[in-house]
Fold each of these.
Amino acid sequence: MTVNKEADIEASNDHFIYKLIKDELQNNPFERSMCTRFPPEPNGYLHIGSAYAIHTNYAIARQFDGRFHLRLDDTNPLKEDMEYVNAIIEDIKWLGYDPVEHIYFGSDYSADIYGAAVDLIKKGKAYVCDLTPEEMAEYRGTLTSPGKNSPYRDRTPDENLALFEAMKQGRFPGGAKVLRAKIDMASPNPIMRDPVIYRIIHASHYRTGNEWCIYPMYDFAHPIQDAIEGITYSLCSIEFKSHRPLYEWVLSELACPQPPRQREFGRLNITGVITSKRFLRPMVEEGHVDGWDDPRLPTLRGLRRRGFTPESIIGFIEAVGNIRTESTVDISLLDHCLRQNLKDKTSSIMAVLNPLKVIITNYPEGQEEWLTVENNSENDSMGSREVPFSKTLFIERDDFMEHPVKGFHRLAPGSEVRLKGAYFIRCEEIVKDPATGEVTELRCTYDPLTKSGTGFNARKVKGTIHWVSGSHAINAEVRLFDKLLLEEPGAAADGEEWRSRINPASKTIIRDVLIEPYAKGTAPGQSFQFIRHGYFCVDLKNSTIENPVYNRIVPLKDSWGKKANVQ
């Protein structure tokens, strides 16, 4: 098990899961070392909620000097694919939770799980049922009324063995029969009312091909897989608490020695963020977003492409801390953790998103000079860089106001402002488009005695603005992101309801952005702070040396206007 060198991945000693396990281990329930697992189904990409579950399992294993397993729960061939397997493995390693050689596949245990089902049939604890899904739902009962027995519940073990073998041989169409555990149709827990443990699926599996046409349900396969791998604690989110009795029933009926224990922690939700694959999959497949790695998605691929770091995500998880129930965390906490991670290790550079041309009329024609500017005001060890200054500059259009309002301390006719790391300039003349009246150019003078860092500046100005040299600037594309959905949808993902809530302004593309030449040739994934605009990252997918593309990771201040909190 390896650990991200830049992150201290550790379970807090006051985490309730840690305390619970520590207390249980006092009674020595296991003769084997601690072992936890994360069992994603490879039918999509991991997301920020997945990271919380991964961290909990990994950190507990590390705290008790144990192993962490990644097990791909690939027992449903209809939507699983090697593409997702590779992405899951890569994302987990990127986060710093490398399982090393402990990567397993549920499909490798198919024969063992089948054998377990046969054992249950022989014991009279499982039976083949012919009820349709609609009939089965009707027989199951409700939360307040018990279910009733299937008319096929009393088939003999020999009958069930023969039918189950026929299911395995592909002699029945999909949905014609299922194998159910025989537990208690009057149980107050609906999950224990003779749950389905095997179903027929005639589809080629991405790893086993057509070897099998019957596949186990997760609730049946999962405890068996845990037992085979020597898992001690199956740590899962709170919605699986009602499934724990079935987990324990399976292991008990199969006489598993020192069975693994299922324990639950709270499920993490984030305001304005949808992590359900029921929404994410159609968003991707219908082209509402630019793939699973779209920077607007909460997938780890999307966050990585946007510019989030593993350390910022781990910092967020650790800041959320101990969750016992389903909880909602304000998204501003995630942004805050990212800013904290980036602020002292990224260079602050000048980028003009909405350029306005400035001519320095008293600066010599054809002359240029290189000025020294600090890279990061939070971290002196990052040093400085050289920034070119010339006669033609560009500033932000909103850093100029022809008729300044009270409190406006940037550039205006007749006023003076400091150029970041350079000189004072004064606006002497405005040039406008005669057809539209739009300001197209400012003609200014500079004071050579106000050069930054020379000690000659005896005067003060209230405003400092950023700028770039026109003849040296890099032309780039910038993408700004907002919430993908205007408001969170309801539970259904199969209607049009959520589609009508897609935010048309969730991605804004700004072309012809001008950036100082320090950023030229930077590799995809490199992050910068654009002064006054926020933190930006060179896009991993679409950026090239000739046509750089920058994604805004996060603004400099909370863009959601909410205080971070846990509800």
Amino acid sequence: MRPLLSFYDFLFLSLFLAIGPQVAQSQPARPGLLTVTILDAATRKPTPVRVRLTRDGKPVAALPPEAVAVMYGLWDHEDGYAFQPDSSFYVAGQFKMTLPPGTYQLSVSKGHEFLRQQVDVVIRPGQPLSQTYTLQRWTHMADKSWYSTDGHIHIRRSPHENPLLMTWLQAEDVNVGALLRMGDFWETYYPQYAYGEAGLYGQGNYLLTTGQEDPRTPELGHAFAIGALDRVRQRDRYYLFDEVFDKVHQRGGMTGYAHQAETFHGYRGLVLDGLRGKVDALELLQFCVDEHPLHTEHYYHLLDLGIPLTATAGSDFPWCGQDHGHGPPERSSRIGNARFYTRLNGPLTFANWRNAVRAGHTFVSSGPMLDLRVNAAGRQPAIPGDRLAVTRGSSLTLTVEAYGHAGQVPLDTLELVSHGQVIGRTTARQPGQSAAHLSLTVTIPSVDYGRWIAARCTGGPSQAAHTTPVYVTVDGRGFHNPQTAGHYLDLSERYLQEIEQEISRPNPATERQAWRYADALKARIAETRRVIERMRQELR
């Protein structure tokens, strides 16, 4: 009778029983298909969003085919494409990814006004997973006629990129994106195919427009222009910023100094050109200097001298921000992390937007929202940028509301500021106040001299906001601060002396060319000194 198992069969079976389970365990588990849809709670339709997917704190290296990609990078190099600097990516509302089994962390966001969502996603071997997430707004500023702008974005653009960049803009809920051609003494970067009306691209309440950050110098700072019908560049007269500003104004645009005038000695150019009436705006809020986005020293300098200056803000993408992926999202290098809001009369059009920015109806924000109104008896309330003319002895009522969200934009402090001094203050810890809403009313019973009045607010980590002032004049006089004017004029003189030191002799550094324009700059310094002397007489 033949045995049931031969010696060789028995040996094979023994080996299989011994190593078979190990072989089975060594086979990789089948991946699962993740399908994600993100809806806007108001429309119940898919909406463009920013997505970040991590596992055990590390970004997932794969990208879904739906990721919207545009080439970008420092110095116009190809440093990035579909991934953002913090390893996130943009989609138009839906995406699919095949992922190994495991637990993933999914973060979905849409700018300042929507509530972020962070969830765990568990992928099981070979099993599909379909998830739908709905993003809720905690505020809707456009419904209140306040439209957001990122006034400082560096990405080269042709008509082909328009719909792709529009998705990026919508994913950050930025209503207006200003793409700036950048220049220096030697070269230009991030070219734009057209300017003015020809360079516009719009979808609904979202608009792409063009501008420039040029001239840019280490001795006088970085200048920007938005809203002009064409670019302006003078390579052979590069350090004469005022000539560029004049031509930008002739072409319907607005000029300003970037980076709060903090870096690249921008305060020198701001004084040289601002005291002579060439500057319209200051980029007051940005994450280029440090993690605190709001710096007001140079802003208050010009305001206290009676020079109106519109507050703007911009991300300076992809240059500014922290991209480790662990800090507050508003600090990462991302479009719209610093923005300004503009109060429009009527729908969002290029003309309406440009007119409102020119009028100074703005506040800057990295999260909190502000509503400032200044009332005089029998007058319509004045909003940021307005000039309010009253007679001596008039009373003023100042009202400001700050809005945030206790979880995402927790408010801390709200202040009313006049001539650089806090004249009213409240915090979320006081009775009747909260992390979601702060309010403050101050009455000035009798106004004896002109003044500028602004509101500012701080929130969670790196969250701040500041309005353009309301400019109050009394009996036809200015709004300068007579108590600080002398100090700021002395400081202006010191900045002019710094420029004189820069141009006193040739500089071997290739990026420092101001000395080549010594004669022309000396003439402008002399003109500014005449303005300073006149102001010393007038601003007492």
